[in-house]
Amino acid sequence: MLAGFYPIARAALFALQPEVAHEASLKALECGVYPRGPAADPLLKQHVFGLDFPNPLGIAAGYDKDARVPDAVLGMGCGFAEVGTLTPRGQPGNPQPRVFRLVADNALINRLGFNNGGHAAALRRLEARLGKGGIVGVNIGANKETADRTGDYVRGIATFYRVASYFTVNISSPNTPGLRDLQAPAALDELLCRVMAARAAEIAKGAPHKAIVVKIAPDVAEDDIPAIADRLMAHGVDGIAVANTTLTRSGLSDAQRREAGGLSGRPLFRRATAMLARVFQATDGKIPLIGIGGIDSPETAVKKIEAGATLLQLYTGLVYEGPGLIGAIHARLTQEARKAGGLDRLRGRAADVWAAQPLG
Question: Phi, psi at residue 95, to the nearest 5°?
Fold first, then answer.
């Protein structure tokens, strides 16, 4: 019922500065004020990363940066939650204002810069929910002022290994200077060697295998996609998240389009989905992909799966459409899965079409 009030709530939230509105939404979830999602149809169940996802839809990292509301996210009908990005030390991020609504384009620009309270605070929250169930991934990153960025990712694995359902290694944010350089093959080799060694060390102590997903940018040069995919496969990553925000600004009309930072929302959909399909082809469909970027309707959710996604994440679409979008996507995916004989039959069936789309 609460989902039906979103047009009124949106007007109130959009009267606030974006970060103030974001904090208000987090507080509402902390207080239990959110629409409870219905149980997903069994047709939507996915076994991925050794985990049983009740449905393939989650909210992307960046919403619940400090692991404050993962259970509320699950309660709204998401099949999984992802917290972070978390860095070893808390940091304030970039100066405000740093989030901008492009209402004319159904988009956001942010230059937050991994603002978060650090590992220790988030770990306490995640330890407190142990035993509640549900899939909660931990998105890890590096502090802006660090001498060893790769070491920060290793610390993330070690710190959260007991409480994370899976990990996402975020090397794709455009708002930490030099972070995207870690996507270059040589730097990626060093990073993944150390991250995988950190996981192996936990397993050697008797801990279970936890999946490691690598999140890449939609601005990767087209010619670099095969080399990046090759390195990710060579190191045995369990999944690839495609993609983070973009620095491109083509086709925008809102007056705030010139603000610096990463662009998310509807204008990102075509580029991110074409990138997703290229990664699907480069990996021969052998690695589960998380499709992110521009999902703001049931139709766009279906197209992500057809381009090659196994799981989906959204964020900006919820800002504009509200929590009712979650149920609407469930209904459409169930309908399409029933027609096709399962979600697996949808996956990648339009990858060739999407991979042929220009990235520019």
Answer: -60, 150
Residue reference for tokens 């279906």: 302
The pTM (predicted TM-score) of the whole model is: 0.95
Q: For position 151, what pLDDT does the model report? A: 96
Helix 225-234 vs helix 185-204: crossing angle, to nearest 10:
20
Identity (one letter) of the amino acid at 246? T
What residues act catalytically? 173
Pairing of strands 166-170, 136-140: parallel
Which residue in this structure is represented by tokens 């929590």? 323
Q: Could you say which DSSP state residue 40 is in?
A: P
Beta strands in the chain (DSSP E): 46-48, 51-53, 57-59, 80-86, 89-91, 99-102, 107-110, 116-118, 136-140, 166-170, 211-216, 239-242, 262-265, 289-292, 311-314
Tens of pLDDT along 248-302? Answer: 998 899 999 999 999 999 999 999 999 999 999 999 999 999 999 999 999 999 9
Q: Which two tokens stand for residue 116?
A: 């978060």
| Cα 119 to Cα 105: distance, rounded to the nearest angstrom | 35
The type of residue at 303 is: K
- DSSP-based three-state secondary structure for 109: strand
Q: Which helix (H) or strand (E) covers residue 315, if one does?
A: none
Q: What is the pLDDT of residue 148?
A: 93
Cβ neighbours of 221 (radius 10 Å): 10
Pairwise CA distance, residues 116 & 309, whole Å: 29
> For residue 6, what pLDDT is reported?
81
